[in-house]
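Q: How would the structure tokens look for this protein?
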Amino acid sequence: MTIRVDDRTVTEVAQQWLSGFADLLRTGDGAEVFLHPDLWWRDLLAFSGDLRSLHGATQVDALIRSVVDHQVRGEVLDPAASPTEVPGREMIQVLFRFDTRLGHVRGVAKLVCDDERWRARNILTALDSLAGHEPAIGARRPDGMSAAGEDPEFWAARRARELDCRDRDPDVLVIGAGHSGLALAAELGALGVRTLLVDRTERVGDNWRCRYDSLVLHDPVWSNHLPLMPFPPNWPIFTPKDKMGDWLDIYSRAMELDVWNSTRVTAASFDPAERRWTVVVNRDGTPRTLRPWHVVLATGLSGTEPKMPAFEGADRFAGELLHSSGYRTESARHGTRTVVIGTGNSGHDIAQDLHASGAHVTLVQRGPTHVVSTTALYGGDDIRNAEHRQTDVADLISASSARRDPQYQEGLRAWVRMLAEADRELLDRLTARGFVHDAGPDGTGVATLFLTRNGGYYIDVGAAPLIADGRIGVVTGSIERLDADALVMADGTHVAADTIICATGFRGILDTARRILGDAVADACGPVWDLDDEGELRSVWRRSGHDRFWIHGGNLALVRTYGRYLALQIKADLEGIELPALGW
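A: Here is the predicted structure in token form.
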């Protein structure tokens, strides 16, 4: 289908709409001509100074009134992606750019036609960089030459000085040097923000290396690129955990990130008058006091404090009882009877690892689990061709949907139904084994489970067929007690066990904040993760509730996409640039 209106091409429709939309932002007039009455407008810092999803005439009209003062100018269709027809829908997708007094904005609009007028049904406006503080990349990259003079400082000496932080304190202290912390530090470094990462592990990447042997990432390589430095084109689709650890180490050195390993925070306080932190760390046995302006917690959104169930009879159990965080691959488990409690990604992965070690494995399922195969999820031609798309364009398009939009929700449900049909044989075989699977909240699958619970699903990388074939056992229901050599279910089923592994999750990142930074910090923060009334994630990549304290995390795609907006908020604060605020 080729869309034409009054003999105009898609590009002509897009250009005319963009010109009118920009005039609307400059004057406040003409909303009914260029905006659909059922518009959903997602703004990432550009006009709200926050991550917001707005809907309805009251909110949209108020936003437009506030935008008039932002001096919108220089609007152009984004040269990175031409306007396109959305397959199967009477819709045109338009990527655009313009400038404001605050900075440079990129956006996405999805246009629909009614009454022979093309109007935006969905809009994204996202701050891409701050005016006068653009990142030092591309044409702005450093020249790499050493400073001239009688006593020049060469690269190695400069890096040693910066890493030691003896000449000055970091502007930002990031606690946690996994993929989240490293990605944010790279974004901040490109903005000229001095950032120090501290991590308790011995080497960058050990948070991946020190896990069970069979672990691979559940998301494909093209969604997992880190900022500024994509994976090589021969990288495997699903990255083995040790390879990922090595890549993080390579990334940290290539991006010139300052990382202190074998370092723990021992004390922290915040001076509200100065708006500055005092943080004491122990670096490989040596105490250091740091005075950063901002602190970011990037130790994993799930938290670091294991959630361990209390079992009746645990004191009588003669075998090994441990949390999944303590599980490592061991050949000595060969031939042992091992029970894994929990059927999310970790529970399945550990069961698969145990099976590979020769253990007799039984999974305990306490509630329904959404299961989708990587073949269905990532095997289509459109998905596999994603690696040929520009990552920044893909991220903008992914961010352009408001999560509370009923059309977006229905699209998720249709997608989940399609995936389930592709997996029908596997799902039916799982059902025959007694495994209980569902379609997620209101049929919206992994996308909603991840953003609301950060769990409750399994993206299959090999365990599901083992269950379907009966090579990994499964029992469902609630647990009544432990006996000396078994786990006893509420229906009386005895599951013989030498080892019980609880893949039961963690208590959340606020518990980590409480342990590391104290009650005052944790108590000041709002709830973390899950969706607010607008469909935005709570307290992540945005103001946490405590001044100059931020929470950062998520999978690699989210970290790459939203770490930029966190970095821009920190940079603006350090430069004294006031971001806009809607006040509602």
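The longest helix spans residues 556-574.

Residues 222 and 386 are 7 Å apart (CA to CA).

Upvote if useful.
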